[in-house]
Design a protein that fits this description.
The chain has 10 helices and 10 strands. The chain is an alpha+beta fold.
């Protein structure tokens, strides 16, 4: 379904392979997704995002629409159709996993079928959208579900270059900066932010996952923010997100826990006698997240350091690309850049 994904199971009857039990058979470090196709709804697919041996998120996909689902709703659909459906399992890289999942939490700026558009028309449409930092998705007809190609772009020129590779299909452009701005404004106003603030896979400092509570957003639990200026609150929020992503990545590479050395660094920079809480990141100590990332990379074991460093660079790049106006406003843009350059050296 996703370009570059490896097909593991293809079109097996759900009576033989139950889709909700399938994740338990997967390895702890694998990323993938399960697709369920229903006989009575051939154009609607359920997507189960699988990290290791568990489902991280449930989603519904149609060629025009997509939405987040609950486990309960998927179970009810399976029961309602008496398991008359087919199951597909794909293995994918972590980058492909995160990128595809993120599209379910991001509102598109462009969504158009390009088959009859000239190169000039397509160029005018994309330039007019103002998108300079985001994800380009192209869905091409394929049976039994569309083939989806996802590309990351960081400038208008890069967007056009990627888009001109395609002449057919539905093209969707997700502007990550604009979506981040909308979410930040929602946080400032005290409203519930749109999902997708952070990349998938956030775990707490002990390696656990956020509670999957009915009616709550299990992917993006929003910590309480400290009192103070609304702009400062938004700044603390983006550093909280970066910290949670980094701790999640480190925990994952360390087999589900941080280890005593990393816990010691975390406690030194963000004392947490009652247990770590992301809300401990405040406008006053937000940039300590950068110190923590550098220390973790510097002091990690040699055989893991390269992988931790690669994840740190990805997280810092997203932090800067998506929030650079906010960082510039608060005078911390240079600190993020310097941290990135030191790690990259």
């Amino acid at each position: 379904m996703i370009s570059g994904a490896l097909e593991i199971i293809y079109g097996v009857d759900a009576g033989l392979v139950h889709p909700l039990l399938l994740p338990a058979s997967q390895g702890p470090e694998k990323f993938g997704y399960i697709v369920i196709t229903y006989e009575d709804s051939p154009d609607v697919f359920d997507i189960l995002f699988v990290r290791g041996d568990r489902v991280e998120e449930y989603a519904g996909l149609h060629h025009d629409l997509r939405t987040i689902l609950s486990e309960k709703s998927v179970r009810m659909c399976l029961a309602a159709c008496a398991m008359r459906c087919r199951v597909y399992l794909f293995s994918v890289s972590q980058q492909g996993f995160d990128r595809f999942r993120r599209t379910f939490h991001t509102v598109p700026s462009v969504n158009v079928v390009i088959d009859r558009l000239s190169r000039k028309q397509l160029s005018s449409l994309l330039i007019g959208s103002g998108c300079k930092n985001g994800i380009l998705e192209v869905d091409r007809p394929s049976h039994p579900f569309p083939l989806i190609v996802l590309s990351r772009f960081h400038s208008a020129e890069e967007l056009l270059r990627e888009a001109f590779r395609f002449r057919q299909g539905r093209m969707i452009v997700y502007d990550l900066e604009l979506n981040a701005l909308i979410r930040q404004r929602g946080e400032i106003a005290g409203t519930c932010p749109l999902p997708g603030d952070r990349d998938p896979g956030d775990v707490n400092a002990t390696g656990g996952t956020p509670a999957d509570t009915e009616g709550a957003d299990p992917v993006n639990p929003v910590p309480d923010t400290p009192p103070g200026d609304s702009g400062d609150t938004a700044l603390a929020a983006v550093f909280r997100t970066a910290l949670a992503e980094f701790l999640g990545a480190v925990s994952e590479l360390h087999g589900g826990k941080l280890g005593k050395k990393m816990e010691g660094i975390l406690n030194q920079l963000f004392p947490h006698p009652g247990g770590f809480d992301p809300g401990i990141v405040t406008p006053l100590n937000a940039t300590r997240v950068l110190e923590l990332i550098e220390e973790f990379v510097r002091r990690d074991r040699f055989d893991r350091r390269a992988r931790v460093k690669a994840r740190a660079l990805d997280i810092l790049k997203d932090l800067y690309d998506i929030n650079h106006e906010l960082l510039r406003k608060h005078g911390v843009e240079d600190k993020v850049q310097s941290c990135y350059k030191r790690l990259e050296a």
